[in-house]
Each structure stands twice: as C-alpha cells, then as structure tokens.
Amino acid sequence: MKISRLWLSLLPLAAAVLLVPAGVATAAPAAAVPTLSVALDPITVAPAQREKTAFLLGTLSHREQPARSHRLSYTVDFTGAAELVEMEFESFPLLIVTEDEEWSPCKRAGTVLTCSVSGVRPIGGGLFSMGDFLVTPTATATVGAVGSVTVTARLDDQDPVTSTTPVRIAERVSLAAGNAGLTSSAAPGEVGSFTPRVRNAGPNAIEGTVLQLGTSVDIVVTNASNCWFDVVVSCVFDTVLEPGRVYGLSAPIQWRAPADAAGGSIAESSVQWLTMAEFEDRQRWVEGLSRRGTGAELTLAPLGAASGVPQVDPTPASEYAGLQLAIRGKRPNLTVVAAPLYITPGGRRSFKVSVLNQGPGALHPDLFGNNYTMAEIKLPRGVKLVRASTCLTLGDFDGVDLLCPSGWTKHAGAARVTHTVLLRATSTFTGGVATVSLSDEYNELELPAARKDNAVRVRFRRG
Predict the structure, then answer these.
(1) Domains, in order of start, for the chain
(2) pTM for this structure?
C-alpha cells in the first residue's frame, strides 16, 4: 500500500502556504488579537447539472504564532437560495454530520445550519476549514436566476461577522480542451513552448473563456497583458466561441527551464479552460494577490470550420488537458549517506541520514514533481525510535520503519538533505545493521543505471 504524497506533504518540514481573501493581512504585531473573516465559495451552476462542492473557510486577520485553540460558532442560512439550489452539509473537517446524531457539532433546521465547536486551531496559524457543501440545482431552477447564502460567524467572544455569497443559475455550455495532451522539453536555461487549444463542444455560443495553467508561475515566460499571475497563470479571452469550432492561441505559451535544473526532471500538471463565470468565482480567493502581465495580448482564433454535430454533454474532465514539461540532459547521481553508530544498551543516540545530490544539476521539487526524494530507514532489532521531526514513522510498514521526505526546497548539486532521528537501544541490544536507501516507490526521478542499487547497510555497534 502506498502512502499518498498529499499526506507526506503535510509533514512539519513543509512550509505552510496560506491564501486569504482580499483585505486580510498576513502579518501583525504578535500581541494583536486576530479577528475572523468568513467566506463560502461563490456558487454558479446550470440547470440539471451534477452536484458540485462549495467550501466554507474562515481566515484570521493575521497568523498566530503559535496557533491557539478557539471556540468557533456559525450559522449558514440558505433561505435566499432555497428555490435555486439544494445544499447538503457534507462534512465538518473529519465528521460526517446529520441532524439526528447527538454528537454532531452542527444541526440543521429547515434552511439554516448552526455549528458550534471548541478547541479548534487554525491551519498554518490563520485558516479554519469550516466544512464543505454538496450543491445541486433544484428542478425548478431557471437560467438567469440569482440568490444568496449568508454566513454569520463568531470567534470566541468577538463580535459576529457576516458574509454573503452569490448563487447564480447559468446557461449550460461545454468547453473542451482541443489537445489530448501537451508536452514540451527544454535543456537547462533554455525556453520551451506549447500551444493549448479549446473547443466549444456544446450547442450554445460561449462568450469568452479563460485558460488556466497548472504549472508553476515561476517558470512561465509568457507575460501577456491579458494574463494574471498568482498561484496559477490565468489568461482571459473575450472571443465568442462558436459551437463546434476549435480555437488556437496567437502565440505559444513559453516557459524557461532553470539553468541548474537536473536532466530528467518532469513537471506533470494540466491546462484547463474555464467560462468567465467560473473564473470570476475563483478570483474571489486571490483578489488583490494577482499580478497582471505587461506584454502583447494573446488572442484566440478559429482553426478551420466547425466540425460535425456538436456534443451536448461531454465528460466533466473534457475541459482539462494534461501538460508535461521535461528537462533534457544528463540525469543526476543521488545517494544516501549514513555513518556507523555506537549506542549503549538502554541509552539514546542521534542518527543522521543524508540524501546527497552528486549532480549534475539541482533538484527543484517545487517545480518538478519527480524531484521530490524520499529516504527509507529500516532499524536493526533492539533499536527503537524516540523522535523524528522530519520523518514519518511507519512502525515496520512493508519492512520500513521511517520515511524521510526531502521537502519542497531546492536541492543543489553537491548538497545534502539531512535527517536526524533520536534512537534508543533496548537493554538487550547486542548490535545489528540498519538499511538506508532511496525509496523505489516515492522517488520518481529515473537515476543513472549505476545508481539503481542505492541501499546502504549501516553497522550499529554496542558501545
């Protein structure tokens, strides 16, 4: 069984990144008492659309260092949208909530949901996950109808705060990516390019579209004035897309490989085409954080004539296309390093394990997914773990005691990522051998053939 990369990314060595709505500061004097803001995802759905999820988040005016426990109470009033959508409260962080379970922190009466919970700490010192909702249009919802959902929340003994979320019933359209998959490669320091396409796969004209790139903003060279840069790149086009037609960009999207990137590095992501309404909804979360490009505008132009009968109901994933950016060049040598350890029965000792990048090139796990490395440690019998702040304790899971991720920071050539674990020997410990290696399951960067067998046996001696 493989442990998800998402779970591993939540280890303490990963830095918390917090996006907050406009007007919320991220720094303040330590003595200041943070205030609460709340926001529910804007809701735009079409008649007969399948259910979608809307998230309710609370943000503090500044991050707490360290984070404290709070009492959080709030109500979500759907009355203003009851004729347009049905909203089912799916979960409160880890709890499935229903009206008849006495232990639930939330209760629903008609179109009002009330929640109250104590002892909650903000994620990253500033963000509360207040639950998510499954939203489904009602059978009577008509295009053009608008409504609202009101959230009122209170943090500890502070004054209540209120936010209103728009609910819109929109015309159903069908955007589809015109490329099944996009690939591009470049040598370190060079520029690569790719050209996404979009197709109107439905019977109605689409009034504008937005291209969203899932790759890292840091390597995108394109700087068109109709593109916005925040955690992703979003390029806005006011072109009316006619049914059945495919449209292409006036110029390719360009990206630059880092000059020190390791050969064989791959960034797997996607491109997505959004309607203008979907883009407007998403922008609520990054408003005030986006940078607008300064170069010549990108435009969309039709490629050939409309083809065949348009598809009315494409698969939900049709608006996406895979995107793979690859670095050409020689692959780096990676190895694990650990020194023999002397440990007294009943005593404690620190054990250091390092992943050494011997080059050529640096690893950029924040840009290229297969640059993320993981060391495995199998401890000898009679040696127990006391503490491992940067490693995940598995307890002899598939023959491995510890998994130690590299984290998301740059790992330069000739540099080491070192993990220190505190161990204790039992009173009967007489010696043994630890095995340290690069995980075959989690290290996706293909290594040179000479490095395929990377396990190191480390002698633990009684001393």
Answers:
(1) 24-169 (2.60.40.10), 175-327 (2.60.40), 334-462 (2.60.40.10)
(2) 0.78
